Amino acid sequence: MWTPTLPDNDRPRYLALVDAIASAIERGELKVGERLPPQRRLAWNLGLNPSTTQQAYREAAARHLVSGEVGRGTYVLAGSQEATLFRLKQPPHQPALIDLSTNVPVMDPHNSDLASSLHQLLAQGDSTLLDHYLDPEQLLLGRIQCSRWLAGRGLTLTADDLAPCASAQQALGVVLQSLCQAGEAVMVEALTAPGIKAACRQLRLPVHGVALDREGLRPDELDRVARASGARVLVTTPTLHNPTGACMSEARRQALAEVIRRRGLLVIEDDVYGALTDQPPLYPLLEGQGVLIGSLSKTVAAGLRLGWIVARPALLAQIDPHTQAPHWPLSPLDLRIACQWLADGTAARRLAWQRQEIGERWRLARVLFGNALVKGGTASPHAWLNTPGDAATLVSQCRAQGVEIVPASAFAVGTEIPQAVRISLSAASSRACLKQGLEIVRDLMRSPAL
User: Fold this and answer.
1) Kind of pairing between the strands at 290-295 and 266-270
2) Of 21, 28, 152, 360, which is most buried, counting CB atoms within 10 Å of its CB?
């Protein structure tokens, strides 16, 4: 257990402990994502009052060194200045990790769409893409093109049903901030994306986890948690759920919609992976009680920062009464390229390539892992594996072998954490690289040391 040596001086003990945490992060002694010792145990080892370590952890969180969650502990933040400095100090000759942790689209090294689009824009000599804010005409074009794109998801929309934004994560923050009061309870899946957890934490919205099965959110559990918590807002990912990859059947979607309508819930549906499937969103079944958010980031291009908020016009007006909050961070250059790709078929072609490549990678994972893989009927960009032993131990062993994966604890809401890991199938630079990383994970899972 990490136990620092505190200097013997007049500095308040809790501040000395905060300084020790910062120094340990900067040196790499405490690494990003590592859990700090429980407050009472550290207090015992240092001979301090538990209230002193509690005060120190609070101050460390205020300085963005760590983040704490009730029931899970306190962890080193990746965005802390000290952690960033440590990453910059790492020698460049360290062996590269095989990234099976990041959910991004597969990179096609032979694709030149962006270079061609930028060349065309430079040839046109239009400097307004960087020298001015977005104008109403550009925004209207964005709404029209996004609504046409979503017709591929089975949605019939007008420009008035959609607000463009810079990303799905930004959309989630805007919607939660607009529709929820500070301290209001929000329901999420018992395993949910870290971005959803982070948005609720930043807005001081306590979360209540709803149990899942192999189809995703359970209607009976949603009904129970809504009744017990009094929460009226649900954030859910019905299609290619992150992290499990679950997709709801039509019967499940209907049953879930019935609970939502009966309970009068407001649903924020994360559809960022939806275009990778042929399954429609839950949104059309919700009869005005839903908000759909999505983007091009997981399906067309990670750096093309265009997302959207879909809702009935009256609800959109409530989310954005001044018609500027969602699109304020949106880049005119990104919007121009995205609209061009949506209009000329480039986005559809890139999506088709992405779906085919993910399908091949998904089949590879199923062959290598067999019954350990929590199977679904739809190819997913991420795989959910039940581990035979401690998931955190497997993550550490994989990192030692040069492979990054993510434990279930990163997604868990509450204290019930399954022994499982999520493996991204799309971040690896090639199928050969992916196969190498997956084989390392498979062999470690079979090891008696796990």
Assistant:
1) parallel
2) 21
Residue 140 contacts residue 327 (beta carbons within 8 Å): no
| Residue 305 clears pLDDT 70, i.e. is over it | yes
**137, containing H or E segment:** helix 136-149
**pLDDT for res 78:** 63
Give per-residue burial for 285-321: e unless 16+ CB within 10 Å, then b: bbeebbbbbbbbbbbbbbebbbbbbbbbeebbeebbe
Least confident of 19-23, 79-83, 167-171: 79-83
Mean pLDDT for the stretch of residues 218-233: 96
Give 142-151's long-range contacts (Cβ < 8 A, gap of 24+): 142/306, 142/327, 142/330, 142/335, 142/338, 142/339, 145/338, 145/339, 145/342, 145/343, 146/306, 146/308, 146/342, 148/342, 149/342, 149/347, 150/294, 150/308, 150/310
**H helix count then E strand count, the chain:** 16, 16
Whether 296 shows a pLDDT value over 70: the answer reads: yes
Residue 62 vs residue 314, higher pLDDT: 314
Q: In the chain, helix, strand, coil percent, each to 5?
A: 45, 15, 40
Q: Which pLDDT score is estimated for 120?
A: 87
- If one compares 200 and 11, the residue with the highest pLDDT of the two is 200
123-146 mean pLDDT: 84
**What's the pLDDT tens digit per position in 343-366?**
999 999 999 999 999 999 999 999
**Pairing mode of beta strands 290-295, 403-404:** unpaired
344 and 145 Cβ atoms separated by less than 8 Å: no
Say if residues 209 and 71 touch (Cβ distance below 8 Å).
no
Query: What Å distances lie between residue 182 and 200, 266, 268, 419, CA to CA?
Result: 10, 16, 17, 33
Sign of CA dihedral 355, 361, 365, 368: positive
| Alpha carbons 242 and 247: distance in angstroms, whole number | 10
Q: Per-residue DSSP letters for 248-295?
A: --HHHHHHHHHHHHHHT-EEEEE-TTGGGSSPPPSGGGSTT-EEEEEE
